Amino acid sequence: MTSVALPRAVAARITVRGLATTQRVVAAVGAVIAAAIVADVLIAQGYTEQIPLVIAPFLAIGLLALVLLWRPGAVTAVLFIAGGAVCSVAVPVIALAVDPVFDDPGPYLLNRVATAVCLVGAVSGRALSGVVWSIAAYIVAQLSVVLGLALAGSAVGLGAGPFIVFMISLVAYLTLGLAQRQASRQLEPLASAADDVLGADRRRLLEQRAASLVHDTVLADLAVIARSPGPLSPRARSVLEDHLAVAAAATVAEPSAPSTAGSALGDALLELAHEYQWSGVRVDVSGAELLSDEVPAATRHAVVGAARAALDNVVKHAGTDRAELVTGIRDGALTVLIVDDGHGFAATEVGDDRLGLRMSVEQRIVQVGGTVRLWSGPDGTTVMMTVPTSGAGS
User: Fold this and answer.
1) Rounded to whole angstroms, how far apart are CA atoms 247 and 218?
2) How many CB atoms lie within 10 A of CB 45?
3) Which fold has domain 261-388?
4) What are phi and psi of 189, to 5 degrees?
C-alpha cells in the first residue's frame, strides 16, 4: 500500500524556510566579521578606545539576526528591520564622529548593517513572503543609510552591497515561487491521466461483474430451458425464479459511494476538507484518494472526528490560512497528518483539561488502539495520528 510521503506543499515550505534560515545565519556571521574588520581599521588608525562604541551597531544587528533565527515570525522580523534601521543610521554617525576619514575607502563598512537588514528572509513557508519582506527590508535599509550619511555630513555614495544582496534574495524567492507554480501546472495533466486510468480500471471491473452475472444466471437458465423437453419442473422453476430475483436486485453500475470502508474513509476526509472552505483556512489533502484497504467503521469515525478537531484548532488558534491533511497506509497502519504553518504553541504546556486536544483528538485515537504525536513550534504544528487498519474498533 502507499506510504506517507512528504506532501509537495510541505516540501516547498521547507525549502523556503531553509533559504530564510541560511540568510539569517549569513546576516549574523557577516555582522560579526564586519565588526572585526571595523575594529582592525580603528586599531590601525589609533582609535582603540573607541572600538566598543563603533562596533556596537554591528553586534546589535548580529544579535537581532540570532533572535529572528531562533524565533522566526512577523513580530521578530519587524523588530529585526526596525532595529537594523536604527543601527544602520548609527554606524556612519558614530564612525565618522570618531574618525572623520572613516568613509575614505568608500561606503563598504558604512552600509554593512543595511546589507544585513536585506537578509531578513521569509517569515512563512511561502516564496511570496520572502519577496514581500525582502522588498520592505531593502527600502528601509537604503533609507536608513541615506539618513545616516546625511546626519554624519558624508558625501560618500550608498554603495552596491545592499542592492546586490537584495537582488540575490529577490531572484531566489521569485525562482522558488515560479518553480512551485510550474510544478503545479505540470502535475495537473498527470493527475488527470491518473483519474483516467482509475476510471478505466473501474469500468473494466464493472464489465467483469456484468459478465459474471450473465454467466452465472441468464446463460445457465437458458441452458436449463433448452434441455427441458416439456414444461419446467417445480425445481427448475424455483431456480429460475431465484435467479430472476438475483438479477433484479443486482447492479453493475458504479456505486456513488465507495463499497469498502477504506474508500469511505478517503471520501470522508475529502469531504471534511471541503467543509472548511468557508472557515478562512484552505485544507489541502494528499493521499486520501489512494486509500483502499479496509478500515473498521469505528476506526474510520474516530479518525475523521479527530482530524476535524485538529483542523478546528488550526482555525481557532494557528493564525494561518492554510493547512495540510496527509494520509496513507503502510504495514497495516493508517497514518493521518494535520500540518499547518501557524505560530504554534508549547505542546508541553497543554493541560489535561484542554478537551480539544486531549478528548477530541487523543482519546478518540487511543480508544481504537492508535497513538497521537504532536510537534509544535514557531514554524507551525504537526499532529500525527496512527491507527491499526484491522482489529481495533471492529
Assistant:
1) 8
2) 13
3) Heat Shock Protein 90 (3.30.565)
4) -60, -35
